[in-house]
Amino acid sequence: MSDALPNATVTVSRVPVDGTTVRVSTIGAPGDRAFVLVAGLSVAATHRERLASNLNAFGPVHALDLPGFAGVRRFRGTVSIERYADAVEAVIDALGLVDPVLVGHSMGAQVVTEVAARRPDLSDVVLISPVVDSAARTVSESMVRFARSVVHEPAAIRWHALTAYALCGWHWFRAVLPRMLAYPIERRAEAVQARVLVVRGEHDALVPRDWVRRLGRVFPYAVLREVTGGAHAVVHGQADVVAALAVAHVRGDLPDRGVASLTAVADTTTRSDLDRLRPAEAWHVLVARLRELVGMVRGDDLVAAGKTEHARATVHDDEPVGDAEQVIADGELAAGSEDGAERRADGDERSTPVRGPERVEDAA
Fold it and tell me: CA-CA distance, 331 to 361, in Å (whole number)?
């Protein structure tokens, strides 16, 4: 573990919105174009720190803790995805961001889609594990699918989720969940003028392949990718490859073969794999997370210190961060899988090179 990772220094600020605030965790050097990360239901921005430290190719990365999550004061009155979109727009305006790249995970993908539908000037959007499948918008079905995904997540991600849900509280979770399930993301997608990258994890039962393909067809422009080995929290569990995909998307380096097929990609680096943490590093992660949680509850500067320690603790200094060509490698879905049959039916097994020696393979 390194004590000198300038890209992992996190600063925390707050933007007033609608009677409460949005906590903004900023990482990376100043630049012309920022990434704005919007987390899912109940999840704290800490869930994005491994992603954020690899995203600052064009400017700083701002990870948002929205009202009601991660210890931030809740909205008063009725909550909705549209109201969360209002909050994200308020942050964009308050920070003076020009054409930021919006990145949303899970429910955050709904919020980002709503913002992009309102702002035709936005150029690029990244949706990771976008919910909710229009064929399964019930609490019972969503819970079953979520449970099927959780078994494929690293233990550290489950720990993050448990602490985030505890900070959110059952009352607020129960208030927001129905709004998330009812939000018609596919109806708003057609109004989005930005170039959209949609990413899912291979084992994400909550966001199945069929749903991603159906959703992708609605956007005026969409590129679809599937990260092998990932599940619903692919944004954290496979942060290196997700960040590389996002940067390559903004640069225009991702080949678009149409939304009828997904392309499988694999993370070839192990720089920030959670399961490679040595005992001392794991202990440091735990202490850093506890400091952050205390800071969230108390509302003081321990939040920034804890986030910085946590971001540094989860990065291995024995392997550098690669660019898109280095972390995107051959990704082939296993023979006999759901998409194997679709590939044979489509008769399309071409591979498309990514700039450099590595390549991606058609997954469906």
Answer: 6
